Amino acid sequence: MSQSLLEQLKQYTVVVADTGDIQAIEKFTPRDATTNPSLITAAAQMPQYQSIVDDTLKGARETLGAAADAAQVVTLAFDRLAVSFGLQILKIIPGRVSTEVDARLSFDTDATVAKGRDLIAQYEAAGIDRKRVLIKVAATWEGIQAAATLEKEGIHCNLTLIFGLHQAIACAENGITLISPFVGRILDWYKKDTGKDSYAPAEDPGVLSVTEIYNYYKKFGYNTEVMGASFRNVGEITELAGSDLLTIAPSLLDELQNTQGELPRKLNVEAAAASAAEKINVDKVTFDAMHAKDRMATDKLAEGIDGFAKALVVLETLLADRLAVLEA
Fold first, then answer.
1. What is the Cα–Cα distance from 318 to 57, expressed in whole angstroms?
2. Beta-carbon neighbour count of residue 110 at 10 Å?
3. What does each of the 328 residues of the chain score in pLDDT, given as a tens digit?
4. How far is CA 302 from the centre of its chain?
5. What does the domain layout of the chain look like in residue ranges?
6. For residue 93, is it left (φ>0), alpha (ψ between -120 and 50) or beta?
7. Cα(22)–Cα(5) distance, integer angstroms
8. Does pTM top 0.85 for this prediction?
9. Which of 224, 206, 220 is nearest to 159 (CA)?
10. Angle, nearest 10°, between helix axes 141-152 and 109-125?
């Protein structure tokens, strides 16, 4: 009996669930799981996870006491909710969960460092080894510097919203554990910019971007892991078979699980070593210049940070409304 595409993919690549939906994680048995503000906000509105939200709000009230006003309780619950979901996820998976720093801190190095330390402290207070947590930070120059500081303290990071080679190189040169290049969002930008409706998987701009990053890392011996993210279709995923990790939404995991066929490995260290990649040293001046020159990376990084920030505002409102119900 032939194997599914998902079973074959797991032979080459660590499969990660890209969701805050705990039931979906149970279904697909990934090694790791990633969350982001949009996913946590969506999960927090699902009836089956109301108890996580309620328990987090009640815990915040208990910590602050009856004299604290509602705004203070919501702020504390907001800080704790992503960890609350992360703790539930870690009961299911054998590996790591990624928990994101508030996107509104993306250009503040010191505040990002402080928030990363706080998130790890929450996990450790719950008995979780910090090796099982990746602190997720937007790959601005300031975010990369914050992550470099955290890495030196043994706090491992996942740099997200990667759209350009300059971001990837800066992460590798600063000793970051893992990066998440956003395949589908790159495709979205090119489709809008060119007016082209579709791309063959092997010509997909997002696939080409991740392939370039993977080849660069392997050719020059960087230890930073590459985890393709934000997929729009199965073709993007199969073209990146062999990437260190791929984080995939439940709908596409389901499609991979229910599809038979041969899945050859597309990315490997041998091919990377033979690639035409040339070494680039990326300091802040080079980073800023390359970023300014790359319209797609400039647009999508700003858009991604803004989108995550808006999701957090929605989440704060949701928590305030739910607290009012609980304490009515």
1. 11
2. 12
3. 589 999 999 999 999 999 999 999 999 989 999 999 999 999 999 999 999 999 999 999 999 999 999 999 999 999 999 999 999 999 999 999 999 999 999 999 999 999 999 999 999 999 999 999 999 999 999 999 999 999 999 999 999 999 999 999 999 999 999 999 999 999 999 999 999 999 999 999 999 999 999 999 999 999 999 999 999 999 999 999 999 999 999 999 999 999 999 999 999 999 999 999 999 999 999 999 999 999 999 999 999 999 999 999 999 999 999 999 999 8
4. 16
5. 5-36+96-308
6. beta
7. 23
8. yes
9. 224
10. 40
**Assigned CATH for 5-36+96-308:** 3.20.20.70
Per the annotation, the verdict on 136 as an active-site residue is yes
Burial class (CB in 10 A: 0-12, 13-18, 19+), 55: middle
Classify strands 14-18 and 245-248 as parallel, antiparallel or unpaired: parallel
Of these residues, 136, 218, 219, 300, which one is catalytic? 136
